[in-house]
Amino acid sequence: MHDPFSIPPQALLSQLLIGLINGSFYALLSLGLSVIFGLLNVVNFAHGAFYTAGAFVAYLLLEHTGIGYWPALVMAPLVVGALGVLIERTMLRRLQGLDPLYGLLFTFGLALVIQGLLRIEYGSSGLPYQIPEALEGGRDLHFMFLPNYRAWVILFSVSICLGTWYVIERTKLGSYLRAGAENPALVQAFGVNVPLMTTLTYGFGVGLAAIAGVLAAPIYRVSPMMGADQLIVVFAVVVIGGMGSIMGSIVSGFALGVIEAITKVIYPNASDTVVFVLMAIILLVKPAGLFGKVQ
Amino acid sequence: MRTMHTGQSNEVSARAHRSRAGGFLFALAVSAVLAGPLGCSNKSAPGTEASGAASTKGKSVKIGVLTDLSGLYADLGGEGSVLAAKMAVEDFGGKVNGVPVEVISGDHQNKADVGSNLARQWMDVDGVQVIVDVPSSAVALAVNEIVRDKNKVFLASGPGSTDITGKACTANTIHWTYDTWALANGTGKAIVQEGGDSWFFLTADYAFGQALERDVSNVVKASGGKVLGSAKHPLNAPDFSSLLLQAQSSKAKIVGLANAGGDTINAIKQAGEFGIVRSGQKLAGLLVFISDIHALGLKTAQGLELTSAFYWDHNPDTRTWSKRFGEKRKGAMPTMVQAGVYSSVLHYLKAATVVPDPTDGKAVVAKMKEMPTDDPLFGKGTIRADGRKIHPMYLYEVKAPADSKGPWDYYTLRREIPAAEAFRPLAESECPLVKK
């Protein structure tokens, strides 16, 4: 264990920046999870698999059609989102109104199927995906060398997260979504097409996971296991932030990325577990999560 | 009204429980995932004879390929290793003295407890006489002990730790393809001789990574160089950014990657992003397989130096065999670990034909050590008293994209390390079997 005061500020600052980058992925993924849980009451265990699918769609677009990163950033979430819509329409809908455990088990099984199929087809070493030319290289900030692509990851995630939060919490469409989650029967009685909203919400949440996948493809390997690696930590983030709370998952995502990074510098052995230790503490002290509401 | 009320209260009570449900669900979810459903367990070939007794004399000779079928080492071993074993059985004729030979496989998931349980079950219940591959030093060291206790045979093609022919050596195990000493002596020495005299290691924090770091550090120090430090990471780490930053701030000339498979691939990719090479440091991939180069692409991997016991394009024999292999693997060329499985199984079958009791592990291994080895993949070689198979090692450099004439044409041969020099001298081994 290193004495926190003997670490050069350079090392600490650079690790903080890395933490923000990791936090961006946590935030994006936990945002999608929160949206789906908050508005559909489904614990979407397939989230990691959709994240992986997003990365694979980007890879396949490049491999087979030459479509590059920037169009893939839009097309992959649409394709994966459409897949999500199909799944919701045909399978998830039947579990509506049941114990959330059924949704969890179903999406868990779905994740295993998607991951298994990808692994059989593409192996587990991962596939190469190059950083787009416009974002190659980096900037020498005196305390570290920051790759341009990683800076882009932070900016892009923050914009998507804030954009989503704004739509859900501050616009009319968002208020319909939230009302539909609270009391679908009544909202439907007012003439709002609640089933359509539910379907599109699931598609949107899944699309968020896919965007995170495209974002991750150039820096982590495009591999069938990439979602499983991230998913456990993301669940911890969502629980800490408060399940169903949009701002909670965004803030916790970034915060936990930074906390994990600081732990890596001070006491590297604990960096894997610090998120779960925090989750245990939060569950004991404030079970609804930091931003969650007990109803 | 009544139905609506019920519907409403269901919703309300669901929401009321939601905050607690969330936490509870998560706990349930975590335990479900940790129960390890992501790995497949024992996969037997169809029509397995379940022979209850440990002695299967006259029934069938069973070969168990224990490998990583689903994780970060699945491409360097995995299904390719199973195929290599089957090819060896096929080329041998499918029978040992009239008794049919059977190949079964299982996934150890790189976990010592999973691998041990599977090995035990295979040897106790399923009548497996020889375990091959095991591309994980942690699992290999555990299986090594179990095989010795049950007097079966362990042909370790996959793992790296030199301890397998060192303090952990047994009369039932042969370490076939490579080891961390050979890698250090190949890649490590070559890089130090080129001027890389200060090193910082990125190490996979388990038996293999630690052994590799130790052996390369010894080579570096013996050549007059310095080891400036090391940063350890857990197996299967997706993110190396903080470790790479530490490597950068150490200002070491060489950043040594004491890891393998998916971890090496990730580290190299991310090192490229953080400008490690651009800012003047060099990367040393201490254990790199052709499957890794395929995953990285030549643009990223060019210039990397690596030591290997086998390359598919080395000579006409290796080319012929590899094409046969590739046909069943969608064109993927074999790694040295997979080639080692073929070679070790072939030699095992030859020895099992001439010993009186092929279920006596020690006797078969003694015979294997007595007979010189000869196969199209590694050529002629020998097996030493400590269980170390001896053959030449080769230092390769990864080609630039412009120099590659086709898929899998990735390596240029820099130097052949003769068999006599390639492995740790017998005199330096701590193996109790070696008479000093």
State the CATH class of the largest domain in chain B: Alpha Beta
Between the first and last Cα atoms of chain B, what is the distance in angstroms?
A: 93 Å
- Label the structural class of chain A: mainly alpha
| Major sheet description of chain B | 6 strands, mixed
SSE order of chain A, one letter for each helix or strand:
HHHHEEHHHHHHH
Describe what this molecule looks like in 3D:
The complex is a heterodimer of chains A (295) and B (436). By secondary structure, chain A is mostly helical. Chain A has a domain at 24-125 and 148-224. Helix content of chain A is 71%, strand content 3%. Chain A has helices at residues 9-40, 47-65, 69-90, 100-122, 148-170, 172-182, 184-189, 194-216, 226-241, 246-266, 274-285, and strands spanning 138-141, 144-147. In chain A, strands 1-2 form a two-stranded antiparallel ribbon. In chain A, helix 1 (9-40) packs across helix 9 (226-241), helix 2 (47-65) crosses helix 8 (194-216) and helix 5 crosses helix 6 (172-182). In chain A, 53% of the residues are buried. Chain B has 436 residues and is an alpha/beta fold. Chain B has two domains: 61-178 and 315-390, Rossmann fold (3-Layer(aba) Sandwich), CATH 3.40.50; 181-308 and 394-421, 3-Layer(aba) Sandwich (Rossmann fold), CATH 3.40.50. Helices cover 42% and strands 19% of the residues of chain B. Chain B has helices at residues 2-34, 78-92, 112-124, 137-150, 180-193, 207-222, 241-250, 261-273, 290-296, 298-301, 316-327, 336-354, 361-370, 419-422; strands spanning 61-67, 95-96, 99-107, 128-133, 153-156, 173-175, 198-204, 226-233, 254-258, 282-285, 305-308, 373-375, 379-383, 389-390, 393-398, 411-417. In chain B, strand 7 (198-204), helix 6 (207-222) and strand 8 (226-233) form a beta-alpha-beta unit. The longest helix of chain B has 33 residues, at 2-34. Chain B is globular and about 65 Å long. At the A-B interface, helix 1, helix 4, strand 2, helix 9 and helix 10 of A face helix 1, helix 7, helix 8 and helix 9 of B.
